[in-house]
Task: structure prediction
Amino acid sequence: MPTAAAVRKAQEMGLDLILIAPTAEPPVAKAMDYGQWQYENKKKQHEAKRKQHVIQVKELKFRPNTDDHDYDFKKNHAIRFLGEGNRVKAVVQFRGREIAHVDLGKKLLLRFAEDLIGHGTVEGSPRLEGRNAHVIISPVKTEKPKDAPKDKPAVH
Result:
């Protein structure tokens, strides 16, 4: 219907004429309370914001001579971080004369990346920047089969 007629009809009902899809052909408008429409839109945006997950980079620091127990402890933290959907940055810090043993740090990072192969994928090989060597590991994307129920986890 023509715009003038739509506005008149909305006023007769005591409502506002709100443009829902201005780019559609013809444009789509709806007669409703403007305050109520604003409230519903704000609520939809808030709900969408709540459901999104921001991916963070969690950093784990090692030294070239890190003990096995400490290594396992940090590896378990990395598995938890990857399970939550965050990326993990493993850093080996060299202090003083330890910089002469860069090979030990790279071996440690390669071992760490190999231990996390089932939980994440390695983004590149270990890199040395200044007195630190690091490697970044991203979580593995697990996709549910389309026929799987939404409330139960998919079994592989």
